[in-house]
Design brief:
Strand order of the largest sheet: 9-10-8-7-13-14-15
Length: about 375
């Protein structure tokens, strides 16, 4: 099929014909999008991608003849294409498939639209806006073993960070906690960054991952099953402990006080995000100052940059993901541009850096921010 210019060409992969038709109705109604094909099995999805060369694939996670993970792996190795996992089963036994598909190269995971989406203008606009965004993300083929350059045993620091590697910027021997923020492309990066931490020595980890609230429990469960650390969805009043990971709940801001007590709250979205990385980072800067480590990973927009700068200003070591390894070089770019990052590294480099840090007591409250 000849490529139609100025249109985002979409392949819809779903074993439900009802779901296919609903997605087609939503997508084809957009002036800049068109469904160029459909597939009902994993094997057919791979074949259709090779034949049609779409700009975007909406991938169901549970299909015959190859699930979303298998199909994603094959597409990314044979004909790299932006993939949005679109699923109606985020919280059941298939939920891990969604996150394994992200780890295999899919860009983002969304809830499957419903018939009401057709009549709900805001819901419909949000769904197609997300699809457009995924279609614009650059992806690369994954062939063979991981390149040697990515298998680092030392931090992967680029030239922009060399001047910041003064003693003040070296990793501390101990920290009260590690605060992490991520958005698009974040789940596999988070898993890599935390995978080598020793639960008997690691500081508590508090993180915000931009994601639909219905997917947060599955995300936390996936991390818990694939990491040596225990992972929890944060609840209001929960206290942090070493060797534990606390994930911000969906649609609520997460903050932390000087006693290590977590707070969840509603309120206005910050930079269109709730939970917001900035909100978490600012609370960590206020409560822990230089006794914390901040990490900002791949994601769209600027959320987290101001908060990371606040942490660095208070003496914390702050790390931003490098451009080459980001799915979307938005949040880390904003942090680096604003001189919020004292170090820059790829996920394996960040993992190496964090492994050097041992847990310390929460200690006395920090002085208030001026």
């Amino acid at each position: 099929m000849a490529k139609q210019h100025n249109l985002i060409r979409v392949l819809v992969a779903d074993d439900s014909h009802v779901a296919q038709e609903l997605l087609r109705e939503i997508i084809d109604a957009e002036p800049d999008m068109i469904v160029v094909g459909t597939a009902t099995t994993g094997r057919d999805t791979v074949a259709q991608v090779a034949k049609l060369r779409p700009d975007l694939v909406t991938m169901d996670v549970v299909m015959p003849e190859g699930d979303g993970i298998t199909a994603t792996k094959r597409i990314m190795s044979q004909c790299a294409t932006p993939i949005a996992v679109v699923t109606a089963t985020p919280a059941d036994r298939f939920s891990n498939v969604s996150f394994e598909a992200l780890a295999a190269g899919a860009v983002e995971v969304f809830g499957k639209p419903h018939r009401r989406t057709l009549s709900d203008a805001d819901e419909r606009a949000a769904f197609v806006r997300n699809l457009r965004y995924v279609a614009q993300v650059g992806v690369v083929s994954i062939r063979g073993p991981v390149p040697r350059s990515a298998r680092l045993t030392a931090p992967a620091l680029d030239g922009r960070a060399e001047s910041a590697l003064a003693p003040r910027s070296s990793m501390p021997e101990t920290a009260a906690l590690i605060a992490i923020g991520a958005s698009t492309g974040g789940p596999p990066c988070i898993r890599t960054v935390l995978s080598s931490l020793d639960p008997s020595t690691a500081p508590p980890v508090v993180l915000v991952q931009h994601m639909g609230r219905e997917f947060i429990p599955g995300f936390a469960a996936w991390l818990s099953e694939t990491l040596p650390l225990q992972v929890h969805v944060a609840t209001d009043g929960m206290r942090i402990s070493p060797g534990q990971v606390y994930v911000a709940p969906g649609d609520l801001h997460l903050t932390l006080d000087a006693r290590g007590k977590l707070r969840t709250e509603g309120g206005a979205a910050h930079l269109h995000q709730r939970p917001s990385v900035d909100v978490l980072f600012h609370s960590v800067a206020e409560a822990f100052g230089g006794r914390a480590v901040g990490v900002l990973l791949t994601g769209m927009g600027e959320d987290g940059a101001a908060g990371l700068l606040a942490m660095r200003t208070r003496g914390a070591v702050t790390i931003a993901q490098d451009e080459e390894s980001c799915v979307v070089y938005g949040m880390p770019k904003a942090a680096i541009k604003g001189e919020a990052a004292s170090m820059i590294a790829n996920p394996l480099g960040i993992a190496w850096l964090l492994r050097q840090v041992r847990a310390r007591s929460l200690g006395p409250p920090s002085r208030p921010l001026s």
